[in-house]
Amino acid sequence: MDGAKGRQVWYQYRDTCLTFEKSYLARLHYVHANPVKHGLVPVAEQYP
27 is in which domain, residue-wise? Predict the structure, then answer.
């Protein structure tokens, strides 16, 4: 989008199959906590 040549959209991306509930819940928590961590909302429930 910024015109830079050779830019990777998915930096260090890898696909994994979640086989354990603990792994799934850890990643789910990461996704929900991310807006709070970056200061977009004070609590995760407020993120649309």
Answer: 15-48
